[in-house]
Write a structure and sequence with these properties.
- The protein is an alpha+beta fold and 111 residues long.
- It has a single domain, classed as Beta-Lactamase (2-Layer Sandwich).
- Helices cover 23% and strands 31% of the residues.
- The protein has helices spanning 27-40, 63-74, and strands at 2-9, 15-19, 50-55, 85-92, 95-101.
- It has a five-stranded antiparallel beta sheet with strand order 2-1-5-4-3.
- It starts with a strand and ends in a 10-residue tail after the last strand.
Length: 111
């Protein structure tokens, strides 16, 4: 299920539109922070790229993993569950399209 979706400009991370149905937590703030981080690190998502970042309760050392671990806390993960969140990103014509989903079935993860 899509928990949250947003569209923003890549150049300045300005949010153009966002949507959430029955959202709990602070996904808008977390996703805005992710977009600002991607603005500052444009090499992570190239023009035309589609990427999915998975937040799991695993310790890793790269920038995105640390960021997504913080996102899990912001979205309501209390650290004792195995709930995963999937951050789907698509960048086209200088626009980021992002949605956060929680479906564990990989067939539901295609963007």
């Amino acid at each position: 299920m899509i928990v949250y979706a947003m569209i923003c400009r890549a150049i300045d991370a300005a949010v153009l539109v966002e949507f959430a149905e029955e959202l709990q937590g602070n996904a808008p703030q977390v996703t805005s922070s992710l977009m600002e981080s991607l603005r500052d690190h444009p090499e992570l998502v190239n023009e035309g790229d589609r990427k999915t970042y998975v937040q799991r309760n695993e310790s890793q050392s790269d920038f995105i993993s640390h960021f997504l671990e913080s996102c899990a806390v912001a979205l309501g993960d209390q650290g004792n569950s195995v709930e995963e969140f999937y951050f789907h990103l698509f960048k086209m014509n200088g626009i980021f399209y992002c949605c956060i989903g929680d479906d564990p079935d990989t067939r539901d993860q295609k963007v």
